[in-house]
Amino acid sequence: MAAYYLQKIYGGEGLLPTGTLGVEPAKALILGAGIVVGAVIIDVSVDQGGCLETSRPTTHDDPIYEVDGIIHYAVSNMPGAYPKTSTLALTNVTLPYIKILANKGIEKTIREDSVIRSSLNTYMGEIVHKALADSMGFIYKSVDEIRP
User: Fold this and answer.
1) Same structural domain, 1 and 21
2) Which of 18, 92, 99, 145 keeps 20 to 30 A from 68, CA to CA?
Protein backbone atom coordinates (compact mmCIF):
# COMPACT_ATOMS: atom_id res chain seq x y z
CA MET A 1 0.00 0.00 0.00
CA ALA A 2 2.90 2.34 0.68
CA ALA A 3 4.16 1.92 -2.89
CA TYR A 4 0.65 2.41 -4.21
CA TYR A 5 0.18 5.71 -2.40
CA LEU A 6 3.60 6.99 -3.38
CA GLN A 7 2.14 7.35 -6.87
CA LYS A 8 1.85 11.01 -7.88
CA ILE A 9 -1.88 10.69 -8.63
CA TYR A 10 -2.49 9.83 -4.96
CA GLY A 11 -0.44 12.72 -3.57
CA GLY A 12 2.86 10.90 -3.23
CA GLU A 13 6.27 11.95 -4.51
CA GLY A 14 5.89 9.79 -7.62
CA LEU A 15 8.73 7.58 -6.43
CA LEU A 16 8.86 3.87 -7.23
CA PRO A 17 10.31 2.34 -4.04
CA THR A 18 12.13 -0.48 -5.83
CA GLY A 19 13.88 1.83 -8.30
CA THR A 20 14.50 0.81 -11.89
CA LEU A 21 17.33 0.65 -14.41
CA GLY A 22 19.55 3.65 -13.71
CA VAL A 23 17.41 4.87 -10.80
CA GLU A 24 18.33 3.99 -7.24
CA PRO A 25 15.66 2.45 -5.00
CA ALA A 26 14.12 4.60 -2.31
CA LYS A 27 15.43 4.59 1.21
CA ALA A 28 12.91 3.23 3.69
CA LEU A 29 12.50 3.60 7.42
CA ILE A 30 10.85 0.52 8.81
CA LEU A 31 9.11 0.84 12.16
CA GLY A 32 7.67 -2.38 13.50
CA ALA A 33 7.62 -5.72 11.75
CA GLY A 34 6.22 -4.61 8.39
CA ILE A 35 7.73 -3.18 5.26
CA VAL A 36 6.62 0.37 4.56
CA VAL A 37 8.24 3.28 2.55
CA GLY A 38 9.77 7.05 3.66
CA ALA A 39 6.67 9.61 2.85
CA VAL A 40 3.77 7.07 3.54
CA ILE A 41 2.91 5.68 6.95
CA ILE A 42 1.02 2.42 7.08
CA ASP A 43 -0.42 2.02 10.57
CA VAL A 44 -1.27 -1.65 10.79
CA SER A 45 -2.35 -1.34 14.42
CA VAL A 46 -4.85 1.48 13.97
CA ASP A 47 -7.71 -0.79 15.03
CA GLN A 48 -5.97 -1.19 18.41
CA GLY A 49 -5.41 2.51 18.93
CA GLY A 50 -2.69 3.09 16.37
CA CYS A 51 1.02 3.61 16.79
CA LEU A 52 1.23 7.34 16.03
CA GLU A 53 -0.27 10.51 17.39
CA THR A 54 -1.47 11.34 13.90
CA SER A 55 -3.17 7.98 13.30
CA ARG A 56 -6.92 7.73 12.89
CA PRO A 57 -8.94 4.86 11.41
CA THR A 58 -9.88 5.00 7.73
CA THR A 59 -11.77 2.69 5.39
CA HIS A 60 -11.05 0.99 2.07
CA ASP A 61 -13.40 3.52 0.43
CA ASP A 62 -11.49 6.51 1.82
CA PRO A 63 -8.15 5.03 2.94
CA ILE A 64 -5.67 7.91 3.13
CA TYR A 65 -5.18 11.35 4.58
CA GLU A 66 -2.21 13.67 4.88
CA VAL A 67 -0.62 15.18 7.97
CA ASP A 68 2.46 17.41 7.70
CA GLY A 69 3.14 16.24 4.14
CA ILE A 70 3.06 12.56 5.08
CA ILE A 71 0.42 10.30 3.62
CA HIS A 72 -1.23 8.08 6.23
CA TYR A 73 -2.88 4.78 5.33
CA ALA A 74 -4.75 3.49 8.37
CA VAL A 75 -7.50 1.14 7.22
CA SER A 76 -8.93 -0.68 10.21
CA ASN A 77 -9.45 -3.90 8.28
CA MET A 78 -6.51 -4.08 5.87
CA PRO A 79 -6.90 -7.83 5.24
CA GLY A 80 -10.44 -7.13 4.02
CA ALA A 81 -8.96 -6.03 0.69
CA TYR A 82 -8.07 -9.69 0.08
CA PRO A 83 -10.82 -11.52 1.95
CA LYS A 84 -10.27 -15.00 0.55
CA THR A 85 -6.53 -15.02 1.21
CA SER A 86 -6.83 -13.39 4.62
CA THR A 87 -9.57 -15.80 5.72
CA LEU A 88 -7.55 -18.83 4.64
CA ALA A 89 -4.43 -17.45 6.36
CA LEU A 90 -6.36 -16.77 9.57
CA THR A 91 -7.97 -20.22 9.66
CA ASN A 92 -4.62 -21.89 8.95
CA VAL A 93 -3.00 -20.28 11.99
CA THR A 94 -5.99 -20.57 14.34
CA LEU A 95 -7.02 -24.16 13.60
CA PRO A 96 -4.29 -25.69 15.81
CA TYR A 97 -5.59 -23.65 18.78
CA ILE A 98 -9.17 -24.64 18.07
CA LYS A 99 -8.10 -28.29 18.10
CA ILE A 100 -6.38 -27.82 21.46
CA LEU A 101 -9.50 -26.19 22.91
CA ALA A 102 -11.70 -28.94 21.50
CA ASN A 103 -9.51 -31.70 22.92
CA LYS A 104 -8.74 -30.25 26.37
CA GLY A 105 -11.66 -27.94 27.00
CA ILE A 106 -11.51 -24.28 27.95
CA GLU A 107 -10.68 -24.68 31.65
CA LYS A 108 -7.73 -27.01 31.21
CA THR A 109 -6.42 -25.14 28.16
CA ILE A 110 -6.26 -21.68 29.75
CA ARG A 111 -4.57 -23.11 32.84
CA GLU A 112 -1.96 -25.14 30.87
CA ASP A 113 -1.37 -23.30 27.58
CA SER A 114 0.52 -20.03 28.06
CA VAL A 115 -0.07 -18.86 24.47
CA ILE A 116 -3.84 -19.20 24.67
CA ARG A 117 -3.86 -17.84 28.21
CA SER A 118 -1.91 -14.73 27.16
CA SER A 119 -4.37 -14.04 24.34
CA LEU A 120 -7.43 -14.27 26.55
CA ASN A 121 -9.27 -10.94 26.94
CA THR A 122 -12.32 -11.89 29.00
CA TYR A 123 -13.25 -14.88 31.09
CA MET A 124 -16.41 -15.56 33.09
CA GLY A 125 -17.55 -11.96 32.57
CA GLU A 126 -14.27 -10.43 33.81
CA ILE A 127 -11.51 -8.67 31.88
CA VAL A 128 -8.39 -10.80 32.28
CA HIS A 129 -6.07 -8.86 29.95
CA LYS A 130 -4.39 -6.05 31.88
CA ALA A 131 -3.70 -3.75 28.91
CA LEU A 132 -7.31 -4.06 27.76
CA ALA A 133 -8.68 -3.30 31.22
CA ASP A 134 -6.33 -0.33 31.63
CA SER A 135 -7.16 1.10 28.20
CA MET A 136 -10.88 0.97 28.95
CA GLY A 137 -10.71 2.04 32.59
CA PHE A 138 -12.06 -1.28 33.87
CA ILE A 139 -10.93 -3.53 36.67
CA TYR A 140 -8.45 -6.24 35.73
CA LYS A 141 -8.63 -9.70 37.28
CA SER A 142 -6.12 -12.47 36.83
CA VAL A 143 -7.49 -15.75 35.49
CA ASP A 144 -6.20 -17.31 38.72
CA GLU A 145 -8.57 -15.15 40.76
CA ILE A 146 -11.62 -16.46 38.91
CA ARG A 147 -13.24 -19.75 39.72
CA PRO A 148 -15.71 -21.25 37.25
Assistant:
1) yes
2) 18
Q: For the residues of the chain, what is the DSSP string, one character each? A: -HHHHTSGGGTS----TT-BTTBPPPP----SSS---SSEEE-TTGGGT-SSTT---B-SSS-EEEETTEEEE-BTTGGGGSHHHHHHHHHHHHHHHHHHHHHH-HHHHHHH-HHHHHT--EETTEE--HHHHHHHT--B--GGG---
Q: What is the pLDDT along the chain (148 residues), one digit of tens a residue?
A: 777 877 777 777 777 777 776 778 877 766 655 544 467 788 888 888 888 899 999 998 999 999 988 889 999 988 787 778 778 888 888 999 999 999 999 999 998 999 999 999 999 999 999 999 998 899 999 998 988 7
pTM recorded for the entire structure: 0.56
Residue 74 · residue 43 · CB < 8 Å: yes
Residue type, 110: I
Pair (4, 67) in one structural domain? yes
Domain that holds residue 55: 1-81
- Residue ending a domain, among 39, 63, 81, is 81
63, 81, 99 — which closes off a domain? 81
